[in-house]
Design brief:
about 20% helix; alpha+beta; homotetramer; about 300 residues; Urate Oxidase; globular; 5 helices; 8-stranded antiparallel β-sheet
Chain lengths: ~300, ~300, ~300, ~300
């Protein structure tokens, strides 16, 4: 008699590195993706007895990623993931859900139009598409977008207990690596055209940056909420957004020990120590009023 | 009129690196932890208006981690996390939930008893304790436990489609980096003594290794299910376990191109290419019959 | 009788993370550095007997980095390192040589002039200054500048042996992460003004990128030599430059297995697999005619 | 007229991941290597004109690594690298020097003899063999061997200047990640049998650990010198050894701020903060009396 049962399970090929080059005369266009496939369905037997009858090999899912980049092209990370997700569920009866995750790396041109590129190196764009046979769920996102305000940030008036030693401050550096995921309302219904994903992404990034820059901040939570609100307000298709924001501490170095004053607003500037660990970690979901919260609390990438 | 509302949110200090040394004469004992605190509760205002009145600073949570290592000691990762989680909820009315995550690094002694140590470097032990004011939830785990079977693994009889090109095999290397989390049934009720966490952890690791070694494998899913079942069968307090297992491919190198035969069972051995990306990714929860599934599908660390 | 003697030795504090903010009204300027100090001199005793009488603590060298950022400012990575290197040799009789290494991270502004920044994320700028009491040696550099040509690269006509199976190609992707170090002729003589380091760096980066883009490449070695030659030709102060260039392979995916043609110049584009390991590694020094070769063969950072 | 000339150059394939399994009945033996090849010789033309006539492709060097693992086996990292280095110089007239670098990962058995392994995860073993047509140079080494003494370390009596604020201490934690390279005297002369490399490596590691544990330390430099001396004294074939040792600071946490005493020798133990950056970096070569110093000052791996 079995004492254990199988719960949620998924499998697939992770981190397929796909680069697509399309030539338009001497002007080339490049897409640089890292694609991970995760499939679920009637998979009891492979766990219980090792029968692979229902298992489309992960090697096949990898081949499909490359083949589809050829056959269907990569209009955008979200479009490509949608085509893949629909394919796996439609193509194999026993597969009931497919989740495709994409990381996208951006490239700038060296000089004008041509075939030479330099990686921007800034944030990594993210897309996740899940298809369960009925609805498509699209979550876009980004990670490793490092931002810093050198003033316009305070932190005071907080709760205190026996272990509180932090002095209040009315002028500090606020810096973080933005990691964000936002869920779209579009569900892939037949009569409903998909958003322009690239335009949507560009808008989201712009508003995250602008809200970060324009918010006079009393807490990183406040700044985060404004960033999320801006994204939702500016894009009617965004239902919710989740952030995970490390508070990258920059400590004003105490120089009185060697007879120097190191003050924030000194004419010759202020010197900070950029710390690694530990760091504050501020996380929240901001929802369009009435929207359901579906993005998990802990953000993951692949 | 606000168009957005606050959803799930949490904050705290991540990655507090704590080392505790206890001297027993000339024999020293060491605990080496990385502790992350995450608090939730009545935190609307800090997001909406930036008022920090309800915010115990993350700096304070860091101080508490170090102070508690002194005041309460570190009996085990799980014990230490439990004391911390209870403290934050009990100590601040507006905090309703505390989640403490711990990474633990193991050290061996150099020579016999004394004060000299070398880091084992094998897996990282994990513990997560969540307290919501009523119940304690303890999830133990490990990551980066790299294992390999050089035979006793097959893969054949799988589903095929247009993109399937993988040849079947009856003798392959099976290798993975085990990442596992298991949830305990113990909920911290007053009359219920906590398990011996260190003994429980040692048992879980042993059974994961043994099940990996002893399972003749037709699929990594099958091996995974056996590993999970063994852990649950051997420890009455474990309710569920989740694995995330990369299939670290080792490809038998094709040497016919340069006139050599490279066969698995050749007397002079076989040569494999250990690949990086892409890799299969096999994930599942194994549940004690009747248990609730609470560990999230995507495993995270900090 | 000692059987061993002390050879080359150096010590100091590595990876001091310094951020300097200078306010010019509401417009702020930021410098973000990672500074490592390495000192050598009369250090026999600290190795032989443990006497620290000649050892200026690494903690003091760290303090000096922060204090000098305040007292002397950070005109550029090279200027700052020069001031530090001179100080340690001048300030402590027993220290005969100081080597300062700097990594610099670049920031763009969010919106116009103000106090909000986003990290560019592209290459990391490097500077190394060594002072031995007489001459200053300045080596500038960069790392992690990822570039790609989607055509204009061939590889054929190479030597062959028993193990050669690579097909020749007349159209391939050429991609690399540029790591480069270039040594300046300036030696800090009293009557010799230092170069404008920021302008010099900008020129070097521009010419590396342009030479990469403009070279029709028969080998990565050829492209590398052109990049180095361009930097030296365009800057009379550069004596030599060394590159370490991984050949980041992009393999045209074989799709005949699933009935597709995947050709470089197909109208609907070509699909490549971006590989991780192994990678070609191409390294060389290019010298101004008559210059001495002083940059070590193996590039290091910190 | 050329303004630039080619200096030192080398090329090859880096990070070939080779796993060799040899079956002895049901007991399997495993070797797990990461091999990098670097070749030099008459390579002017490939840099100047792009002619590859003298270039054995890096792809061929990769194939050779795998083929030789089959044809010659892997007796040890050093033996394998020696066979490879000799081959490239002997096999191609235009190649005058070959340098092979190997990283080796160790595995323990799960249970008794069989085919199941768990990676030890401790240090990575290193070997570098260079052959120039005449002599073989063998450098062995290791990295990432993390060690800690919880007492038996002092630091006082050091030089002081304006920026010195560090308090002296007579009881501190001393911890480091050992990175070491030691050069052998054996040069591959025809009548000179090679050392037993595995036994030599085991001895070196043991003596490094023992010297670390047994040295009452007044400075990390002193401990380092003892470690090097022990390796040289115990192995007549070792000519020199170089260390690069980060001083991984463990700061006794100041708890007076919250009314606690945190003292090194308290009966209930002491609590330390393990810091990341900056760290001290202590480097030196220890030489057998009369030996030449050939290991570069900055250690590199691949």
């Amino acid at each position: 008699m079995p004492t254990t049962v199988l719960g949620q399970n998924q499998y697939g090929k992770a981190e397929c590195r796909v680069v697509k080059v399309v030539r338009d005369g001497t002007t080339h266009h490049i897409k640089d993706l890292n694609v991970s496939v995760s499939l679920s369905g009637e998979m009891d037997e492979v766990h219980y007895s090792g029968s692979n009858a229902n298992v489309l090999p992960t090697d096949t899912t990898k081949n499909t990623v490359y083949a589809f980049a050829k056959e269907h092209g990569i209009a955008s990370a979200e479009d490509f993931a949608t085509v893949l997700a629909r394919h796996f569920v439609a193509g194999q009866e026993q597969i009931h859900r497919a989740r495709i995750r994409v990381e996208e790396y951006a490239w700038d041109r060296i000089g004008g139009p041509g075939h030479s590129f330099v990686r921007t190196g800034q944030e990594t764009r993210l897309a996740q598409v899940t298809f369960d046979g009925g609805h498509v769920e699209v979550v876009s996102g980004l990670k490793d977008l490092t931002v810093l305000n050198s003033t316009g940030s305070e932190f005071w008036g907080y709760a205190k207990d026996t272990y509180t030693t932090l002095p209040e401050t009315h002028d500090r550096i606020l810096a973080t690596d933005v990691s964000a995921r936002w869920r779209h309302g579009w569900t892939g219904a037949p009569d409903s055209p998909a958003p322009d994903w690239d335009a949507s992404y560009a808008r989201a990034k712009t508003h995250i940056l602008q809200a970060f820059a324009e918010t006079y901040s009393l807490s990183l939570q406040q700044t985060m909420f404004r960033m999320g609100t801006r994204v939702i307000e500016q894009d009617p298709d965004v239902e919710e957004i989740r952030f995970s924001l490390p508070n990258k501490h920059h400590f004003l170095v105490d120089m009185e020990r060697f007879g120097l004053k190191n003050e924030t607003d000194a004419p010759d500037g202020a010197v900070y120590l950029a710390a690694d660990r530990p760091y504050g970690l501020i996380e929240a979901t901001i929802l369009r009023d009435g929207a359901e919260q579906l993005i998990p609390a802990d953000l993951t990438t692949l």
